[in-house]
Amino acid sequence: MDHAMRFAEPDSIEEVLSLLAADPEARCLAGGATLVAMMNAGLTAPSLLVSLRKLPGLASIDPQADGAVRVGAMARHATVAAHDGFAGAQAILAAAARRIGHPAIRTMGTIGGSISHADPSADYPTAITAADAVVEIAGPEGARAVPADEFFVDWLETALAPGEIVTGVVVPPDATDAAVHYEKFTRADGDFATVAAAACVALAEDGAVAALRVAAGGVAPTPIRRREAEAALIGRPLTEDGLAALGAALADLSDPIDDMRGSADYRRRLLPRIVGRAVRRAAAAFTARSGARSGTGPQAGGVA
Amino acid sequence: MSADGDAPTSVGLSSPRIDGAEKAGGKAKYADDLSAPDMLYGAIATSPIPAGRILGYDLSEARAVPGVVAVLTAEDLPQRRVGSFVKDETTLARGRVRYVGEPVAAVAAETREAAELAAQLVLVDYEETPAVCSLDEALAADAPRVHPEQADYARQGDAAAEGNVFWSAEIVEGDPDAAWAECDVVVEEVYETPAQYHAYMEPCSALVEPDLGGRFTVRSAAQSIFYLQGRISEELDLPMARIRCVAPRIGGGFGGKNGVNVQPIAVALARVAERPVKITLSRSQDIEMLRSRHPARIRMKTGAKADGTLVAREAELWFDAGAYVDESPAVMSFGLLCSRGPYRCPNVRVRGHAVYTNKLKAGSFRGFGNPQATFASESQLDALARRLGLDGLALRRRNAMAPGDHWLGGQRVDACAMRECLDALEARMAAEVPALPPPEEGWARGVGVSGLSHISGLMGTSAAVNLRSDGTVALSTGVVDIGQGSDTVLPQICAEALRLPPEAVAYAAQDTDSSPYNWKTAASRITYTAGRAVMQATVEMRQRILEHAAELLECGVGDLELAPGGAVRIAGSDRSVSFREVAARAFNRIGGPIMGQHAFAFDGPRFDPKRAAMSNFAFDNLGVYVFGAVGLVADVDRETGKIVVQKVWSAHDIGRAVNPQSAEGQVQGAVVQGLGYALLEELIWEDGRLANPSFMDYKIPDGLDAPAAITPILVEDAPEETGPFGAKGVGEAGIVGVAPALANAVADAVGVRLTRIPMTSERVLDAIEGRASEAPASRTA
Question: Is A257's Cβ below 8 Å from some Cβ in B?
């Protein structure tokens, strides 16, 4: 009876890919925050753990020439949370990273590991969906890039093909210079979200919504967005009716489950309320920031 | 008095916990940190079904795992059932399994991995039988029996067992049937409370080392080395002389380590393997295998005069005990005893039932049946106050017990600062509640209060003390410090009686080979009972010190007094001898140290059959009562149902705080555990299987969930005359009133009263929005 698990620590992506290709039961070990917990709980027993720790350049966060920011797959949550090079909507990644688990988890866990696991109650999937980020993938067939909202396919299921791994997340530049808010509703500190919403909001000088992106998590097998509902709010002042319409549109798309964090019924009720809070708070942050920049103090941006 | 007055040298000082630095610094050694040469690892195979017959075992695959040394089932163990009240348990399941997670077989192997793998490969042939996984199922007329053999079990008393109800008890005072007619207002409600997990930091663990003489040394997480020794002896048919139990550091107990856990299994494995064996449970195993707080359903009815004077109280309590009796008769009986609360009420009838279900055992847990009863009682008092348009504190003050009053059951209460606690709470809240920043927009603020009370005492204990040749003191008791602070507080009591600083007293580690007997670290009893034994042992030694000193100083004993810092002097003079000189003389004269020892069992007032009719009560002798009151400010989010507790004040009739900081820590910890009970914590079963046996799914409050401020108020207005320096216990009282105070605050904030805890956000929102709740809860197919 052979129950031994093997461990490899390659120093090139090619070697990682060939190890994965050779053994369908192999799993990549990034931070281990989720995988090792699942192994300890007896939920998974990989034959081979391929550590990504020694791969060069995978942990860095790098600005790109076009204003995008590339977050390496092995960047720890704490590093992303503290990163000050995000601009506009990109900052939703840092806002979400600050709310993941506890300090010990934020020190271990990585963005690549989190999105590859694709738990819809986790924080990064929702955040990168709101930010229109693109997931960089390496695989036996070569490298490819997949937009976040195509990357998450189903509960704990991604667009990764067998043998592929995430190498990074590219967060596009945000010309609207939106302010962000990540609203996370939990039972207790450090828990996964019962419902979460990531909002990126920019306002025009007259207070009308200039840009709006909102993703919700914990309410469906994947993070959800309603772009047409977002668009319907552009060019008008933010109103409770408008927020309710956005919340209702997201609720239509939601497909929550009953679990220990709450019933599906509760999640459906929370969803528009949490979305409303996220958008209002992002708008308020935008207003406060503009006020601070112009020296005139907050004016527009309240909910009419 | 002497020139240096009677300033305390030790009692009343907040000396740092003696084990604080080593615990905070990660150096403390718990059972799992220990190992022994040639040690094996143990693992336990458990039942995957809630109810069934064991038809047979196939151990061949388990035995074939490389490194496996021993595999045991009930067939390898003595054929005996054990239990304190009803002998219904076996070390490993015999013939039947009764809950998912029940130990069925045990393995010892060279590595932890081999042991765990082999445990998974133990094949048991089960015939599944119908299970009862809730009170309703267990109480149904045609319910399957959790213990079809129940009639054959040895037990204490007959206790009105019927069907799955294995113990019913009752207390009646006055004439409740007639009294309802005198009431101006009557409220009646059903309350429900959850199974709470102890969530001690250290999962249960034991290291057992056999020696060639056939003795076993057991180092494990347990709340009593002596109870453990006795229970291992009973389960495995070994004389106590062959079992030595030693206490390492214990990472919390809260009642969960009150009984045995993995220790008898580890001894059985070590006996067969003839090698040391260590078993440490994973968190999930610990949750699924051991104990919870009893889930309870309580129907309660209270009547009062228009001015708030209580007239009558009726209650019926159903405690879901899980698959084995364990301590349930005592827990349920104590819940009954607390069903009137710390109030005068002349007409009372309370009935309680402990019920078998196919779930893990419910057992002892901080509060011991009292938090369930008090949730009902103090929620109901608040509802009554609202009906009458009275202030909640005023209603409680009007009915509060005072010295000389009697507890339900007729025991006279001599020391009682209930009213002083209500006054102290009211004063602090009046000053501090208005100063809190207002709630966030959309949140409603509520203020809630609850009275509280508990016992401090029970059973026997003893202490021994001796004067070392250098004049320092060696103190020894059998008390295990599970985190409550006895390693610090008991030496403080000893030191004060000798006018020494705390550090002059060395406190021995606990070992059944050498420690004086102590029952358990339980029942908020240690400072009061063990402190009393320590006090008396020290007083006895002090007398002998004075006798030696009198001979040295050539005077009468009556001329002498203790001087601070370890000396005896002739009162009013500067002629003195040091403890060192006295000790040296004693070693020469009597060949060893001056010693003192004392043993006692609680000897105070008892139940009074002339005042109360009691049937099937699980004990007849308790201890002294402690009183208190808790108040809190909570904000409720009307959109989500989320409750945020802003501040808590908890006033305690402590008699005398031996170590104020340590007592405050007990109160704060109890309040946070009480908030977990009120807000978050509930073990949930789905078809007989626990659905949340991990900290991923079962949440307890952490530092960021705890209120920004928990203010303990130690009320020392009513010293307990029989207690050491007036002290009585505070370990459990702090948890008792938290849930009702919070339910009362929620009612104040949003006008709806939750009668079921935990008050999860979902349940609160459902109550606000007036809809039937679909919130996570136990369910059966």
Answer: no
